Amino acid sequence: MANTNPRERAHISLPTWFDETKTAHTTRLLSLLEQQEGSGWEIDEIDTTARQAHVSRSVQGADIIEVALASDVSQADGDRVSARMSELHPGYAMTSFRPKDARATLARMSPELVRARESVAVAMSVKPWDIVISGDNTHGYDVRLPSSYTPSRHDKRLAEAAETAIGQPGWWVKINAKTLTGRIAPGKRPTLPILAHYPDHKPYRDLRDQMRLPIGVSMEYGAEKSREISLDLWDNAGVLIVGTPGSGKSVTINALICGALERDWDIGIIDVPHKAGDYAWCEGYVHENWFGARSLEESVATTGLVYAVRDERKRLLDQYGVEKWNDLPDDVRPAPLLLVCDELTGLFFADKPPTGVSKDNPDYIEAANKKIMTVRLEATIRRIALELRFVGVRLLLATQQAQGNTGISVPLKMALPNRILLGSKPDRRAYGHAFQAPDDAPAIPSVFVENEKMGKGVGIAEIEGEGFVIFKSYFDTGKTYRQRFATQGLHTTINPYPTGRQIRDMMPVLLDDPGEEDRPFTRFDEGGFGQTDDVEPPLRGAARAAHQLRVAADQYTAQNGDKNVPHHQ
User: For a pLDDT cut of 90, what percent of the chain falls above it?
Assistant: First the structure.
């Protein structure tokens, strides 16, 4: 039979003067207990050996019971005390355990609520009384979690508990990492479309709309419907994208390039030479001479040309008396500019020159020159990130690995507040390298690992001002994107590649140059870029070799078509 009038029970130490054979002592003890803990107490048993009195009082069906603990109870006794309280008070469970105050709190709980609380506690590796929970299996549960909660560590465990121990497949968990409150409720399993095609073109409304570039759609989960996810590049330096081969990195970059071109951005692209073909679909739409993916020399030139816009745009700001590109009048403001740098780790990598050989050795010269160029490339990209935000220049940096030993410095990463980690099975180390607040990043639901088609192109985005979101990248083929551009009549590029003069102008002094005295003075030597005279200077050294290879490639193409064109590697 259910206990409709549960009793609050406690154990108190007997005073030294107490003698159980004297009625006056019993009356005095109950009076002292009433002064400290309230009325209604009765003595159930006197333990003269332990010098304790076991007391209780009726709580008349109260939902909350405050219980006094023995003075010798410690934090380590929590499980024992909780079990004992449940025995003494059927239908109640301990919700607060404060041995320092010699107090505990019990609350009326249904068996299913107790089970749900225990499941959450196991997922969190905490005690059940550390979890605040209410609700039922029909409508779901509201929870408040302890401060040890971190999304990357606990979300997957909580989702598993929701679908197996508390409810069934389709139950969802949503926790606010800042308030530590959330909900566990029945519903559909997290879903994403198998393919999320890039949406139909819509003209941008204003500058704020022009600076938002769509990347994909969020997952549908619980009460949240799927929605479009965009990067807001209004007032930040850009985005860092991390993804291993097959994770959808190229697909995501393509979507961002499409959005930028359709919003009248100027685009520049650099990449490692053997991956240049990934962007062949859009090389006819980049800014003139800003497709620098075919060789390291062209990458150095392209980044230099992008950096060179600083001076002209700064003069425009001074002319109109404004501090930022965003504040210029619409009719004079130059286009926003996006420099795409893919395979950044590969671009920044250069073998050390071989030891034990003469510095005149061709192998030594080749390795040393590549190192010189990669140092120039990394320095220019870093300066773009740190210096050119105010003139409307944004960076898209993409890499398979983002840790510091791959050449991607902390200052460079910190300049980019927007982060994307692609792949359905990232590990915790990847979270740490990719995100600014990795502990707040959500875990990818297991359904996207189980369903490979649904998990293709899945990622986590950390967006400035919005927080984290799990999404799937928009996908379309290069051919489809080009058809879109043709329909819209987008401007095409006459010459996408840097010219020989531009390569020479932006190239650092190489070891096999005949001498720095023969090299025309450039504004790069003062921190700027650009040739100081109008004479097309001859190419020398590694730049000359690269140019000769490209000339040979063009001749080969004219005779044999596009297949097997020999580019400099």
Answer: 60
